[in-house]
Design goal:
homodimer, 417 residues, alpha/beta, Aldehyde Dehydrogenase, Chain A, domain 2, seven-stranded parallel β-sheet, four-stranded parallel β-sheet, 43% helix
Chain lengths: 417, 417
């Protein structure tokens, strides 16, 4: 079967499945999630065998070790995936919640009720755990899902999807509610991005290149995730010990994620006191430093930052550092280079804190905390399908409610207009 | 200046304006709206003169009378536009509302606060009142707006925008907060759809062709509005008098709008009792009837409906009528042909009402009322920028809150992760 036919079939069946999923009780959905978890554990050896093919291919193609490690599945990691499904089962069901309700002037009782989005397309890169995670979250929110994983993980994803889709079906979830695009042909992504007839939304999860491809080519509505050029601004009134701890944590604790800091902004009045120790600490931790001329004065390891460094999402132990003359200059810098993900000010000044939070346009705006907290689990959502960097529909960490829509349910007794 | 340069300039200035608009108080925004209203009234003669050029061009190009009437501006209509702005001023300001707030496990105080979307692009067709309405709603919700009206109304739109933009600027609204694309070149629309750097969302308002063009070509997120293939299902338990009133109202009261009924579904058990009178009443009202074979039995004026009639948004005194054997068949028909705008069941049966409201996937699902109520004003929103037929971000009538996004404002005292 060619991939267009497969996609059309999967889309049509998913749309039918979505109609049934929308009316399933929480009990049925949770039973399915628990059965999927159990099935993953029971079938771990066949999943590991499939994964071994992906690992062998990756090694033959010279994939770097850290990426191979991300791809690897073993019994412990499969157990972790299963536990993830159990956690999703334990979360409250967003579907059916009445968000608001009122009676209009004609006596119509209008309720705004949370309903599933319908059919969600997820396009993602190598980690096979996303397959399970995305399928579980979509199912809990009453959505059908069409998954399109990276070619490096195709054998793992195929094995994992077969196991969880069968377990779901066996517990009463309609056929086709969880589907995986079987081809690794890139044209299938292009076709998926035009599948408006069946897909209600596409969520890309991966690097900047993937996100850009999806945003530029999709006619299906997209929730853009991920890119984070996050700043921390050390105000002239900052507690400098606190500032050092936060700025160090924001860069070094996990540099490869989107909520890590990429640029440190320091008020000129505290630069001489703050920067020498701070820069030395980064240097000791192996952070490559790229700064403005002023910053370069305070540590010999600092190289001159270029214009492109201010806009870079390094995702690595690299930091851009700039000394600014004022809060206004910090706000201008952030407005110019931020991807509107997470921004922080370290300050003891009430008015500066207030202005920063009001004027910075980003999903999460912090006072005196690390940007690393922008995360569905840290926020207490108990789940995360991604972090939206767009303003439409969802912004910031997306949990189950962000995988839903609404409908107006209206009861009358003969009203005409 | 070529249109690409103009658009880029307008986008850049609008983005700067949006930063300031986001922090303006309700008082300032309301003063601007009232000043805009006053300026429209004071400058009505120059607007009428500009409008006369559009009317002359329309007559020369042979535009049908009803469309010319839609295009016409006179003192009374300008007064109505001004009153619309005053109504927007009287509405509650959505910006700054704290939607929810909590403390996370690390002691971070997290608030989810309503903020403007940023810069909104509105692409619309001939009615010049949309210019004022859209500008007013966007301003009240703290957004900058770039308006792109139809070429038929370019002189009217230019005059109206000049008046309201100046009045807004004079009361403290930043320059460029309200802008109109000055060219009627269609390429400007294409360029606007790719203006991701400056536009946060595009809302098309107009016919199916315009909406399709925008959805298929925009890389900026879109809120799709408008198309309504709405059904009314007369259940076997319906109060047939009520059913007749509702079904007549839904088709005839204003056939050219998206919430008008396009297809009437009738349960076979009541067809013989219900349809003869109903069809005769439609016939008397000048409604062209297109039905299934079963429907054709009940009135000689009924022509055979084709497959395309079931999917048609007639926006006219034309109605498709189908007799169905069951609620299930009605639900299947609606799932197959509905545009998920507004759907109604007329019934006295509790379980049928419940099933219909749960299983029909549409923005508004009615029991015993006319679909014509799907409207921001009828819902009591006090405003309407359009009716969303997509599931992402907004669904159904869109008022001021639908022109907003959120941000997380987070206060800590040194938290690191």
């Amino acid at each position: 079967m060619d991939y267009i036919t497969e996609l059309e079939d999967q889309g049509r069946v998913a749309k039918q499945a979505a109609r049934k999923l929308a009316t399933l009780s929480t009990v049925v959905k949770n039973q399915a999630l628990l059965a999927m978890a159990k099935a993953l554990e029971e079938n771990h050896s066949q999943i590991v065998i499939a994964n071994a093919k992906d690992i062998a291919n990756a090694e033959n193609s010279g994939m770097p070790k850290p990426l191979i490690d991300r791809l690897l599945l073993n019994e412990a990691r499969i157990k972790a995936m299963a536990d993830g499904l159990r956690q999703i089962a334990a979360l409250p069901d967003p579907i059916g919640e009445t968000l608001t309700g009122w009676q209009n002037q004609n006596g119509l009782a209008i309720s705004k009720v949370r309903v599933p989005l319908g059919v969600i397309g997820i396009i993602y890169e190598a980690r096979p755990n996303v397959t399970v995670d995305a399928a579980g979250l979509c199912l809990k929110a009453g959505n059908a899902v069409i998954l399109r994983g990276g070619s490096e993980a195709i054998n793992s994803n195929t094995a994992v999807t077969a196991v969880i889709a069968q377990a779901a079906y066996d517990t009463g979830i309609p056929q086709g509610a969880i589907a995986l695009v079987s081809t690794t042909d890139r044209q299938a992504v292009t076709a998926m991005l035009k599948l408006n007839k069946y897909l209600d939304v596409i969520i890309p999860r991966g690097g900047a290149g993937l996100i850009r491809t999806v945003v530029e080519n999709s006619t299906v509505p997209v929730i853009e995730t991920g890119t984070g050029v996050c700043h921390t601004f050390v105000d002239e009134s900052a507690d400098l010990d606190m500032a050092q701890e936060i700025a160090f944590n924001a860069k070094v604790s996990r540099p490869g994620v989107c909520n890590a800091m990429e640029t440190l902004l320091v008020h000129a009045d505290v630069a001489a006191e703050f920067l020498p120790d701070m820069l030395e600490r980064y240097h000791q931790a192996g952070v490559e430093l790229r700064g403005c001329y002023e910053t370069m004065k305070y540590h010999q390891a600092v190289k001159r930052a270029t214009e492109s460094d201010w806009a870079a999402e390094f995702l690595d132990l690299i930091l851009a550092v700039r000394v600014v003359d004022s809060l206004d200059m910090a706000l201008e810098h952030i407005a110019a280079y931020s991807t509107r993900h997470s921004e922080a000010i370290i300050t003891k000044d009430y008015n500066n804190a207030r202005r920063f939070q009001q004027e910075v346009d980003a999903a999460a705006v912090y006072v005196n905390a690390s940007t690393r907290f922008t995360d569905g689990f840290e926020f207490g959502f108990g789940a995360e399908i991604g972090i939206s960097t767009q303003k439409l529909h969802a912004r910031g960490p997306m949990g189950l409610p962000e995988l839903t829509s609404i409908k107006y349910v209206i009861n009358g007794n003969g009203q005409i207009r």
